[in-house]
Amino acid sequence: MAKQPETIGPYEVLRLLGSGGMGSVHLALDGEGRTVAVKVLHPHIAAESRGLERMEREAAAMRQVRHPNVAEIVDADLTGESPYLVTRYVQGLSLHRIVEERGPLEGEALRAVARGLAEALRAVHAAGVVHRDLTPRNVMMTDGRPVLIDLGLAVAPEATRMTQGVIGTPGYIAPEVFDGQRPGPAADVFAWGATVAFAATGRHCFHGATTLEVFNRVLNGEPDLDGVPADLLGAVTAALAKNPAERPQADALTGDAAPAPPSAPPPAAPPPPPAAPLEPLRARFREAMRRDDADGAVAAATELWRAAVATEDRAEIAEGLRALGEALVAKDDHHNAWANFEQGRALAAEVGRRPTEGWCLYGLGVCAAAHKDHARADHALRHAIAIALETGDPTLESSCVFELAVMAESHRDFPQAEWMYDRLRRLSAVTGKTEDLAHALHGLGTCAVEQRRHEHAEAFLTEALRVAEGLGDTELQHWIVDDLLRARPGRRHGG
After folding, report:
1. Which long-range contacts (CB under 8 A, 24 or more apart) does 31-35 make?
2. Binding residues for ATP
3. Mean pLDDT value of segment 399-426
4. In terms of Cα–Cα distance, which of 140, 135, 178 is closest to 153?
5. Which among 51, 97, 377, 446 could disulfide-bond with 368, CB atoms 3.0 to 4.6 Å apart, if both were Cys?
6. Binding-site residues
7. Which ranges carry the Protein kinase domain (predicted)?
8. Alpha helices in 242-333 (DSSP H)
9. What superfamily does domain 93-154+168-256 belong to in CATH?
10. Is 133 among the catalytic positions?
11. Which of 75, 133, 179, 188 is flagged as catalytic?
């Protein structure tokens, strides 16, 4: 049996709480003496580097959740040898144990569970995350209030979920998950219905003698809701619909009977003042950036951001923040650019605007590189590449690849730099960006010069110069000519 660790990161371990498919959970103390639950990931999960990137992103989103019905993630270290997540520790008994030992809940106690869990899901979904394993065992009861725990599966690496097949608890897994669909918020709503039904009746609403029977009933049968009170029956039935599109959203699951319609419609609110159209402002920003007019770009981006705020469209606000960050980078104001990119990234992640999130991560990488924080730059740029591959954006991918190539070359990691420059060269054929081809060839040439492979260097640099001349980029031409002069003497003297 593995020895109980004395510390995990900065946390003093008190005892093992349990172990599961994701890892082991320990009761621990933080630096201020508060109890927390620390989940240490199993080694095979920690080895999924690409999955850990997604896990870190979703853990960051979950850390924004502050709700009395959610045991939120308060810390995470997913970069060390033993990655772990830290959540608020909730003392009490699980809903499953309470119902098993004391019988079904009734009246206000049952409604409090239904309401509290619906509010917990609303908070989790607002962070852009799906819990994926809401069951009575993952609900702790403290002073009559339900608290949703075990957010570890919510931030599980994608590759891990795929290799383990359908993940979740039989009877609480939504039908669409069996068809290979990625669990969405509607899957959590399905689990909410099954959990409330269990709390009301003391039995699984998709009960069966074997797991296969349970799965078959979820897919093809009807739930046993006998004993669910009338004021909850409608919401529970709707939540358990086979078609996820027919289930209500979490914010509609109040746990109470539907309110009576108002006797008269409320007075109409006055229409908001019309917002400035965004597309002309975007065009002004793009034109200023094309002209290398940094001051004009900042002015246009600021106006674009303000107009986006007036629309109250969070996706547009995120895009406005990204534009403002890009304009500030053009002014070499990386400090303020960073703040705008970070706000834009968080907002884009919240509303599921993946392209904007990716470009904000790229901007964060550029800013970190400018501050010589290469580890953070590498992290952000590789996250952005993952989003570029997910969304099919070769322009974002090539932008990130170029920054990574330059960083690798500056660290004299020439094999990595050459690999990245060659990737940039191939991407230029997809994006049609001739300037990327010029930079890729130039980079391959300078890497060859540094490694004293002068014949290769001259070939790359000569081609780079030809492309740069076609672009009319005189500054780049000067750089290439200087590197050609470094390459040719070495070749004449035998390298």
Report:
1. 35/89, 35/91
2. 39
3. 94
4. 135
5. 377
6. 39
7. 11-261
8. 278-290, 294-311, 314-330
9. Transferase(Phosphotransferase) domain 1 (1.10.510.10)
10. yes
11. 133
